[in-house]
Design brief:
This protein starts with a strand and ends with a helix. The protein has twelve helices and 15 strands. The chain has 309 residues and is α/β, with parallel strands linked by helices. The longest helix has 21 residues. The model has no long low-confidence stretch (mean pLDDT 97). Helix 1 packs across helix 8 and helix 3 packs across helix 5. The protein binds NADP nicotinamide-adenine-dinucleotide phosphate (NAP). NADP nicotinamide-adenine-dinucleotide phosphate binds next to helix 1, strand 2 and strand 8.
Length: 309
């Protein structure tokens, strides 16, 4: 198949493009930068230059590519400070709203058979109900003030993609990404914060997180391109875990000192309501549907081994 990848140069894109090509597909990779075209050629993809926020440019590159399938892996995460969550995600939120709409309408014009898009497994699904959630659990609008725009952008993306009745609209809710090219890699922002003891366990640390190695996220995406049906799939590892468990393990794995423990009120002062919620209340995600329907298994079944690599 001919596959158009928006976000081909990103952390997921760099893992995904070579796997699609190894699977016998032709890949057209989109970037904003003339200078990143060479890296796309090297991966075996045909580069196209366009800004995802410009509908005319997007329509032109998609029309000239005439793809069978489109993949949307666009993000632009500015930082990871929960006090300013929506500010740090402002550019990503535009990519998830306007960017999604532009890609969908360009895809519709050429009749793409499948449209696969990146979403997130974790805080958007809320903080009530089971500790580990399936895709059936609805997105929860009751979010801290600092996260509402980001939640709305996720909601928009999921509704637009699964609601596109002219194509097979597939949403992949990736867990917290770690591994090469992510902020959870040696030298990455989150790892350095853990090393400097800047991320404490807040309160009881009962917030449950689901993680996924970036290579496993790419493998699941290849499976979704081949077998995904309209709807949502959680792409997470086998072991959702509370912060009180994974954060000290992560610190030990990278040779950092044990994280501090701080009471909820102090956590709220430092990290705001969003920080407290993510540390104490959010829920994890189950990968049963992706395993069953995509025939996918994570090569890194647990962050326990993955973090230690
Ligand atoms: N689930 C998760 O936990 C999750 C999800 C996503 C990201 N992250 C983390 O956040 C870190 C920061 O990543 P990032 O958000 O900067 O993503 P990234 O992995 O660097 O990729 C961003 C991709 O989006 C493209 N892009 C962004 N804005 C665009 C625009 N206006 N038009 C066209 N293409 C555009 C970029 O292309 P060009 O730059 O080539 O134009 C690039 O291919 C990652 O390393 C990862 O650790 C985590």
């Amino acid at each position: 198949m001919k596959i158009f990848v928006a976000g081909a140069t990103g952390a997921i894109g760099r893992q995904l493009v070579p796997r699609l090509i190894a699977g016998g597909h032709r890949v057209v990779g989109m970037t904003r930068s003339e200078s990143k075209q060479a890296a796309l050629w090297e991966m075996g993809a045909e580069p196209v230059v366009a800004d995802a926020l410009d509908p005319v440019q997007v329509a032109q590159v998609v029309a000239s590519a005439q793809p069978d399938v489109m993949i949307h892996e666009l993000t632009s995460i500015g930082g990871l400070n929960p006090r300013h969550f929506d500010r740090d995600f402002a550019a990503t939120n535009r990519l998830r709203t306007e960017g999604t709409d532009h890609l969908l309408s360009a895809g519709r014009a050429v009749g793409v058979k499948r449209f696969v898009a990146q979403s997130y497994a974790g805080w958007p699904q809320g903080r009530t109900g089971p500790a580990v959630k399936s895709e059936e659990e609805p997105l929860d609008p009751a979010q801290p003030r600092e996260m509402r725009e980001s939640w709305e952008a996720i909601r928009h993306l999921e509704a637009a993609v699964t609601g596109a009745d002219w194509t097979e609209g597939v949403v992949l809710r990736y867990g917290g990404l770690y591994g090469p090219g992510t902020s959870m890699a040696p030298g990455g922002e989150q790892i350095e914060m853990v090393r400097r003891r800047r991320i404490p366990v807040v309160g009881n640390g009962a917030g449950v997180w689901s993680f996924i190695h970036v290579a496993d996220a790419a493998e699941a995406t290849v499976a979704a391109v081949q077998r995904g049906q309209r709807g949502i799939y959680n792409v997470v590892d086998d072991e959702p875990a509370p912060v009180a468990e994974w954060l000290p393990r992560l610190a030990a794995a990278i040779g950092a000192p044990k994280p501090y423990r701080v009471p909820r009120w102090l956590g709220r002062l430092a990290a705001g309501e969003a920080g407290v919620v993510m540390m104490t209340e959010i829920r994890g995600a189950s990968n049963a549907k992706a395993k069953r329907e995509l025939g996918w298994e994570p090569g890194h079944p647990s962050w326990r081994q993955g973090f230690a690599q």
